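INTERNAL AUDIT FORM
Audit reference: QA-55
Scope: verify that the stored structure record matches its stored sequence.
Auditor: D.O.
Record contents follow.
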Amino acid sequence: MWKTVRKAAWATVHLVVAAAMAFGMYLFITVLLITAIGTLAVVGAWMLPETVLLIRRIAGAKRGLTAAWTGREVPEAYQRITGPLRERLRTAVRDPGTLTDVRWMLAYYVYGALVFLALPLWPVGLLADGVWCGLLRRPAVVLPLIVRLADLEAHWSTVLLEPSPKARLAARVEELTETRADAIAAHGAELRRIERDLHDGAQARLVALSMRIGLAKRAYDHDPEAARKLLDDAQDQAEEALTELRHVVRGIHPPILTDRGLAGAVRALAASSGLAVTVADGGLDEGVRAPAAVEAAAYFVVAESLTNAAKYSGAPRAEVQLARFRRGLRVRVSDEGRGGADEGRGSGLLGMRRRVAALDGTFDVTSPVGGPTVIEVELPCVW
């Protein structure tokens, strides 16, 4: 009986909050009327985008309330309202999410007051279920109806607030546009880095090598010893240039990935890191490998994460976990350092996020001050 009463109490609280929100929506009618009149009069057209944004916040609060009751998130899909007034007006009117929110508001004026059906059930339920359940040991009958009313209210809200297929498509297109722009920016930054490495490294050494060989040719007839020394220096310059070129090639696509696969390449990174790194490869050495682009993205995420951990975390050790799941690859890098990693203070984390977003993956960083720092990446692929 006590368990039934407690469930009914929580359901009542949910319905009371829903009714309070519905009452606020009734007051919000005034804002809607002012916005409509101002928009029709043109001079108040600027209020329409702001009102739509306010409606989005109200709908977002309702999504949170519904998710708290059902335990399942209610997705949202909106187009961003930015730019000049004309563009903001066009987006506010044409966004399918606006129609979804308005439709929910109109329905909520009706079903938001379900609490008034629940309140009369309490005295009847305490009396009837107290006898039926408490004395006769039978399942409660009346009080569970309050829970069903809360479930009904949450179900209607979920159905009405879920974005339409058109809104999901529009949000997806906008997301892909952003990730494409990030991928282009990351690609441009990578090309500039390669150009800089070639210009400042290998090219400079090759120029020095050419000059040494030229000096050696001039000195060969009258000073063979000096020519031999210049040729020795030229050989050293050639070896250094080869080292620089290998470094550039590794930055484009590490050959070790092709030779040993992702698990072997990550173990090589761990061995060359300044930290004591443990690697759990999740059985990636066996079976089908991920696509080359996915392996490269995962490799660079691990490499950058370990480099950041060695430079900034102050931790003596780190851990890398690789796992294969049905629709992709999961990478987790953690350290017990000082934490406080911030994407806004450097390009490393932002570069990783862009590289992952270009493959439609997810990138999450958890780094509270005092640690630990955990970087989790999921890259979709077909095995």
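Auditor finding: record pair retrieved intact. The chain has a mean pLDDT of 83.
Action required: none
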